[in-house]
Every structure is written in C-alpha cells, then in structure tokens.
Amino acid sequence: xxxxxxxxxxxxxxxxxxxxPLLIKLLARKGYGQYIRDDGPREHASKRGTPTMGGIAFIFxxxxxxxxxxxxxxxxxxxxxxxxxxxxxxxxxVGFLDDYIKIVKRRSLGLRAKAKMxxxxxxxxxxxxxSLQFAxxxxxxxxxxxxxxxxxFGWTIGPVLFVVWALFMILAMSNGVNLxxxxxxxxTGASVLVFGAYTFIGVWQFQESCANGENLTNPGACYEVRDxxxxxxxxxxxxxxxLGFLWWNTSPAKIFMGDTGxxxxxxxxxxxxxxxxxxxxxxxxxxxxxxxxxSVVIQVGSFRLTGxxxxxxxxxxxxFELKGWSEVLVVVRFWIIQxxxxxxxxxxxxxxxxxxx
Length: 357
Fold this sequence. Notes:
Helix 1 (about 5-30) runs antiparallel to helix 2 (about 55-75) and helix 4 crosses helix 5. By secondary structure, the chain is mainly alpha-helical. The protein is built from twelve helices and two strands, in the order H-H-H-H-E-E-H-H-H-H-H-H-H-H. The longest helix is centred in the last third of the chain and has 29 residues, at about 325-355. Helices cover about 65% and strands about 0% of the residues.
C-alpha cells in the first residue's frame, strides 16, 4: 500500500520538472504574462511579463500522479481522495478565470470581488456538503461535524454550521496562500513543507487507524479517519509536484503560479486538514500563511482606525523588502519560519498521540 505514496511523489515531481518548461513556452508564446501592481517594490517591475497561471502545471501533475499511482499499484480511488482533488481543481478553476481576465483585460485585477467570491462559495459548499456523505463500513464520512485539532473533539456542530466552518477555512487558507504568493518561490516552498507534514500524518493515521484493531501499538489513541492513506498519497503527489515546480519558480522565477495555483493550494490544504481531522492544527503548520494574512488585517485595520500604517507595506514580505532585505533573503527566512511551524505542528500531533498511552 505504501508504494502508492512513493509512486505519487515521484510521478508528481517528474511531471512538473518536465512539464513546467513546456508550459512556460506555451504561455510565453501566447503572451500570458504577469501584471505587476504599481505600488509594489520597484525591483518587482522587472518581473512584468513573466508567464503566469503556472499552477496549471502542479494541479495537472498532482491529479495525474494520484491516478497513475492507483493504476500502477492496483488500488481504487477513494471518495475522500476524489473530494480533496475536486476541491483543489475547483479552486484552481476560479483562480484560472481570475488570471485569464487579468491577461485579456491587461490589468492587475481579474475577476470582480463578487464573482470571485461566488466561485469560491460554489466550490466550497459543494465540497463541504459532499464530504458528509459516503460513510464507510465503520460509519466514517470523509469529514466530521465535530471540530478537530489533532483528532475530533467537543460537541457535534451539525451539518449547517459545519458547512459554514468549512467555507471559512477554505476562504481563509486559499486567500492566505494567495497573499503569500508575492515573492519568487515563497508560497511554493512553504507549501512543500506543509504537504510533507501531511504525508507523515496520513501514514501515521493509517498505521494507527482504529480499523486495525489488535495490531495497534496504542489502542487508546487510534484515529477514526475514513481514508488516511489516500490523504498521504495526495500529499506526496502535491509535495513532489510543488518541488518540481519550485525548480522553475525559484528566484529568478521563470513562471508564476498565479491565482490558479495559490487558490488551488489553499483549497487542497484545507481539504487535507478537514478530512484528516486536523482543522485547527493546520493553522499552526501553515503558520506562515496565517502570519502573512494577519499582517494585511492589521495593516488595513490600523489605517482605517488611526490613519497610520503598522508596516511599510503589506503583505508582510514586502515590508521587509522595503527595509532593504533582498528577495532571496526574505524567502529563505520565511521558509525557515514555515519549517519551524511545521515542526511544532508535528510535535503537537505526536504529543497528542503519546499522551493517550
């Protein structure tokens, strides 16, 4: 069974390493280049015209890696896997429309706010509703109507509140990754770290699944997760695909992921968190996305309340650029911050399991 994870990661890596330069040539030939905001750091002006919508590469690679790994090993796709991939593709489609309008209309803003929100709501609600269906033999559905940290806890919030909660998570994380995607390789590298963590979590939950009964090393701390191994397969495919894309996306970037990629990554990360019962833990493991989102909230709130700005520019990465840090220095240091967040998150995940011994 574990071979699925290896195949998914390797195939995802290979497809983006080979496929991304082909996509770059195609996008460049059609003139699908990035438009840079006029009020950003001056150094970013040189990036104008760099091919965008690169998220197409790792979305395609992830989906292909998932199904090819299934075909090679002889295992069937699961409802959980299909729903998480569907969330990624759906959010990526919304981002693609946003990117495409930017290019065609030749402006730095794409879809109107209401249209973009409507697209995200349709995709998010569809995922949330369907994730409460398809119970397995143990009665587990892909998602749970309980809140979760390292496992489910507390009272059942009911299907309606769950849909609202899932929508909040999807919108928050997808827009968080979108805000982070402001420097070459920043969001891609940070995502690789989180998907690596979710590969480990999926494998651990599979080994310690309550369905394993007598084979558990710690019967008091088993996991009621519908398809944990499939979540690990998707995470490995994403990690490999994003690593391959990072080869071309790192500074100086030959291609940008665009909203196509950032919304897709945020969506699939939320899907992994919801289906692995680690909804609140993802805020720690994806701490860089949360930190950068909060910098925008603080900046806007402060300016509206006091007329003063806390940062030289928001999101946070541009504040440090304007302080004189080079782009590469900001990216590497922010990757370190994200790595620390992942280590803390995995530590809490393991500690929760060990505490129930």
